[in-house]
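Usage

Read records sequentially. Each one opens with the input sequence:
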Amino acid sequence: MRRREFIALLGSAAASWPITARAQQRERLRRVAILVGTAQDAPGAQDRVTAFLEALEQLGWTDGRNVQIVTRWTGGAEAATRKYAEEMVALAPDVILATGSGAAVILKATQTIPIVFVLVPDPMGSGFVQSLSRPGGNATGFMMFEYSLSGKWPELLKEIAPTVTHAAVLLDPTFVAGIGQFAVIQAVAPSVGLEVSPIDLRQQNQIERAIATFAQSPNGGIIFTASGIGAANVNVIIAAAARYKVPAVYNQQPFVAAGGLISYGPNFTDQYRRGAGYVDRILRGEKPGDLPVQAPNKYELAINLKTAKALGLSVPQSLLARADEVIE
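and closes with the structure output:
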C-alpha cells in the first residue's frame, strides 16, 4: 500500500471513531425498575406488567438489548414494600415505575430518581406532586380515579342486590385514599338505603373471619375499596364472599373475572400501558416534573352472571345493558 493511501485510510478510520463512540453511548444499557404493590398471582397483575413491557418495546426499548428491567412484587406487605423500595433506590435506575404505596415509599427515599406512578387515587393529597398540570418534582404519572367514583359502588351494590341494607367497606385506614373513598361512600349510602361500616384490611389473617362475622347478619353486602393490601388479598376476599353468600362490588374488572360479582372502575392495564409512554419520554431526556398527571380515560362495568346465580340474584336487564363485559 502506498504511503499516501495508508495515511488517507488511517485518517478515515480515526474520523469514524467518534461516531462509533457516540453510537455506543446512545445504546448504553438503561435500567428501569418496576415496583408492583400486589402479589404475582393477584388477578390482572401479570397482564398489567406485560402490557407495560409490550408498550415499552413498541417504543424502542427491549429488555436485555438497550434496557434492563428489574421487577419486584410486594404482595401488599409494608415490610416488603420498604425493602424493595430501598433496593431500587440503591440500584439508581434511570426510571422507576411504581404503584401507589410503593411510589410513596420511594419518594421519601429519593428526590432525584425519576418516578412514574400508576394507580394512585389522590396524587396531590398524598403529597406525590405539587399540582396535576405541573408536578414539579421527580414524580409524575397516572391517577387511579377521582374520589367521586367511590359513590358508584354503593349504588351498584343496591342495584344488583336490592335486598342489601348494610354493607361492610373493606379499606386500609392508614391509606390517605382509603379515608377519602370511605367518606364518599358514607355520603352516598343513605340515599340508596344502605348503612355502611368499615373493615380494616391491615389485619390480613383476620379478613376472612371478619367477613364471616359480618355475614351472620342477613341482607349484608361488601364494598371493596382500592388499596394495595386489598388487592394483595383479593383472592381471599372473593372466596370468602362466595363461601358466606355475600354480594360484593369491586373496583376493577379482573376481580370479577376471578369470581367477584360486579365491578366498576378504570382500566388498570391501560394505565400501565400509558405509563410506558412516560417512561420512554423520561429515558429520552424529558423531566417528570414537566409531564402532567393524567386521569383515567377508560371506565368499565363488569358483571359475573355465574357468581350472581350462585348468590341467587337476578341481574336487572338495565344493568346488563350498561355493562362493558358480562362473564357467563
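Summary fields computed downstream for this record:
- Residues 147-266+300-327 form a domain with the Rossmann fold fold (CATH 3.40.50.2300).
- Residues 52 and 274 are 8 Å apart (CA to CA).
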